[in-house]
């Protein structure tokens, strides 16, 4: 059980500590933040019995200042640590993380209602990501570049330029609730292998899972101050963290909060992934069985709470009836219930999320959408719902539900589908998209026309594998993720120029 054994030191009674300067500390703040189990919506203080609710320390601004100062000091020596030693520690952390997959996965089940099997997969995937990053970092950072001056017109060979990648300094990492372990390590590992220190601000829902993950790095033996984890509500300490003068780079995954961060960050380098209304375009010649399977996987896995979930289906009218019937048949087979039972559809993360989704459903009903299933809700649990004959004047056509509700818009041309994807009144449709067709030429042409960071051909959108580039356009993001891109983003080029004396004679 989480909170016992090796993890016991991160608790003070029922309250989780924060992590700074290589130690688990109790905040001087009297504030605590409740983490509610999405399934039961009940609270319970004793972690040893049932992780229904956990209290975590809310850090003060003074404590954040100390964390930043410690991170800045530790980073100077960490940057001088041999690259192979940094990689060795990351490999060790990865092994410990995978060794403790069960208790961390249990936190994911209780905190964010992630199905048990998916929770274990997230932890194992995270360990693999850390190991891969260690290896890729050695390759990328172990190479420099050599330039000579006479390669540019008008110059003699009087200068040699040596370039290498050096760390930015202190990285602030802010992951989202839906993948609080995986999307945290996707920021932590590149930062650390590159010689940076890192301060993690976990989401409220998912904070305990993140704290247990950080403890694995602690057990691996990283130097004090290299990785820290501060907790508290983003509304209370978010601005103080993101605008802190000690931060040299911000890596954020989440929603519209990222736009506010980007406006306040000034000259600080940003890596932002803000979600999107990922579109699925289905042509007449598509394999409709393949399409239906991917709509289920893409639209309803983890109850649709994924930035890469299929969020709108744009299907040619001539095949729409057949496709809708196939999807309806598959939805009928989805299991609905608690995450402990590995159900396909589990409660969404909070009551406010469920209320937002219900608002979109009510709007669609009032405006005449066809309900392929009866709308059903029990607390935070919303049964999977396919909405057919959705029109552009319905909110669900444009807004991101982040839940198990999927709209179908019937189109009469490819151009109509592309227009909906690229419509200027919704700039979030630009993270990922997918196209289903047997005509590779059409697929490539549509991909080129879609204003989105990634287009999947004959597959649902997906972030992984974790070393693939991952980015959005417009308000869906800044920069690119993926292991290699993250390492490069968290470093800068340092040049050393050797000036040679001008020869006083001509070599024979």
Automatic annotation (TrEMBL):
Main localization, broad class: cytoplasm
Residues covered by the Aldehyde dehydrogenase domain: 24-495
Gene3D superfamilies, sorted: Aldehyde Dehydrogenase, Chain A, domain 1 (3.40.605.10), Aldehyde Dehydrogenase, Chain A, domain 2 (3.40.309.10)
CDD domains: ALDH_F11_NP-GAPDH
The keyword NADP is annotated on this UniProt entry: yes
Gene Ontology cellular component terms for the protein in this record: cytoplasm
Active site (UniProt): 273
Keywords per UniProt: Cytoplasm, NADP, Oxidoreductase
Catalyzed reactions per annotation: D-glyceraldehyde 3-phosphate + NADP(+) + H2O = (2R)-3-phosphoglycerate + NADPH + 2 H(+)
Compartments, record wording: Cytoplasm
Assigned EC number: 1.2.1.9
Domain of life the protein comes from: Eukaryota
Example of a GO MF term: glyceraldehyde-3-phosphate dehydrogenase (NADP+) (non-phosphorylating) activity
Keyword Oxidoreductase found: yes
Family classification: Belongs to the aldehyde dehydrogenase family.
Protein name from the UniProt record: NADP-dependent glyceraldehyde-3-phosphate dehydrogenase
